[in-house]
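Dear Dr. H.,

I hope your travels went smoothly. While you were away I took the liberty of generating a structure for the chain from your last submission, since the lab meeting agenda had it listed for discussion. I wanted you to have the full record in hand beforehand rather than looking at slides cold. The sequence, exactly as received, is reproduced here:
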Amino acid sequence: MDKNTVIGFILIGLVLFFFTWINRPTPEQIETRRLQDSVARAEQVKQWEDAQRQQAQQAASIDINDPATSDSARIADREKNFGVFASSIEGNEEYFTLENQHIELRLSTKGGQPSFVRLKEYTTHDSLPLILFDGAESKLNFTLITATNRVINTADLYFTPLRGNDPNSLAMRLNAGENSYLDFIYTLSPDDYMVQYTIRGQGLNGILAPSTTAIDLTWDQLIRQQEKGRKYEDQYSGLYYKFLSDDVENLNQSGSRSERISNRLRWIAYKDKFFSTILISDDGFESTTLESQQIASGAYLKRLSAVTSLPFDLQGKEPTTLRYYFGPNLYSQLKSYDKGAAEGEQLDLEKLVPLGISVFRWINQYFILPIFDFLCKHISSMGLVIFLLTLIIKTLIFPLTYKSYMSSAKMRVLRPQVEEINAKYPGQNKAMERQRATMDLYNRAGASPMSGCLPMLLQMPILFALYMLFPASFELRQQSFLWAQDLSTFDAIVSWNAYIPIISPYFGNHISLFCLLMVFVNYFYSKYNMEMTNTGQQQQMPGMKFMMLYMMPLMLFVFLNQSASGLCYYYFISTLITVLQTQTFRFFINEEKLLAKLEANKKKPAKKSGFMKRLEDMQRKQQEVLRQQQNQKKR
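The corresponding predicted structure, in token form, is as follows:
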């Protein structure tokens, strides 16, 4: 890359920086956008309510709210369409609250369902109360088939609230005639995010269809945007489910998806990045259809829905037991629900926390998380926790780092001899002889290019595991450090409203400072490291220098600019520690003594490893093929 190209990149960067600075939003514009989001949320809810109201009206042959319809006609129509449930078709919607120190749960008499949930301990990114859903944003409906083949939807009916001695327990009763009813019983524990949800019928034999062994359930919910970065919140939001005796799966989180599942499910979760609404069945959900619809803009991320069925005892002897979880995706909290559970009975709710797959999840679960949790218990500053975690990890992998450095040091002190080989076998037609002589030199001296690569490869799983951990770590949410107000999302120092093609979708409308610092440190470290580890072979690979010095930092900047600032901060600190380690190694390791040791190795009988033997055989065959090709050209 010549000087003019570098100057061009610098000028482009300055223009982009100036453009973003003059287009940054004012406080008034930020407040206006906040109001627009609130209006958009209200408009989307209104549209959904109108659609549901229209469907409910189409279910009846006569509009019972039409003033022109006589009272007798309305009564006759209700009895025709709803039978013994006709008395529950009209009423006043009232709300009753169950709450503890963690959640506020509001139950509606219409449908006897949860209509509002607020998590008391948390707020949204703009300091508003954190509400999982409110009103029509969530709908829970059971479909009942009567003995006369009428279809009854509980969401359209009004329930009667019944309070008992326990202030944190409430029964919603759907009357079905004398001594016949259907109860939805909600019980909130004093110090928990879990709500017991019991369905019990009484005297329904003869009212519901005699073949009733299950009831159909439809559950819809809109997922609110709670965090600052919509792209990454949407990426971590979705519909998850667990098979009754198997693993946890999820619908593809990009775009709109639907899936029909014949196997029984233990639970269904509507998951946001940091919070979830989970419906758990002790007996399992059967014949389930799941659907996820992505919402491109506005106050909501997704619309999630499930159509399934639950076992139901028509005689009323055995209740249908469910549980609701309204709370954070905190690994330790979710894991606690399996404490004391028998083998095969675990809920595995902690798998809602995306820690990676296969070996990456194993590293996070059994290595990094215990250290991270220990530090969080004793240190309040998350910035300091990440620093200490980085220091511990770098200390543990220190032997690999040292071995990698020693390998590059051996290659570096042998560089003059490699250059002599390059001069002895110049040109492309002698490339095989040159490569063979170089490998022979390394083998006799006891140096190997692979010995430097292998330690670096062994560190990669840890780096990928941390890439999965930090963006999904609930502990980082709304934790500030230095200029970053929230380590779980980007730390924008410059932002703008204008949509820029290509840049806005992938890079975002901001520049993150920790990401920028990380990129600069990686660039200078790569430049320094390439100069220090130059073995004389780099001239044969000019594209590698461009890739490592320019393309890699640029790709990191694009990929991580919208990611968690805590992740960029970790990479930044990790690279700085690596630079310090490298300087320390170079200060204490005498390269003249190292070269003397390598020269002494040449005098010893050569011991070729199996890998080196195979490599030499392969080079010999390639050289023979090259000679044959050259001879054919001469002919």
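Two observations you may find useful: The CA atoms of residues 249 and 358 lie 14 Å apart. Confidence is low (pLDDT under 50) at residues 55-64.

With kind regards,
E. W.
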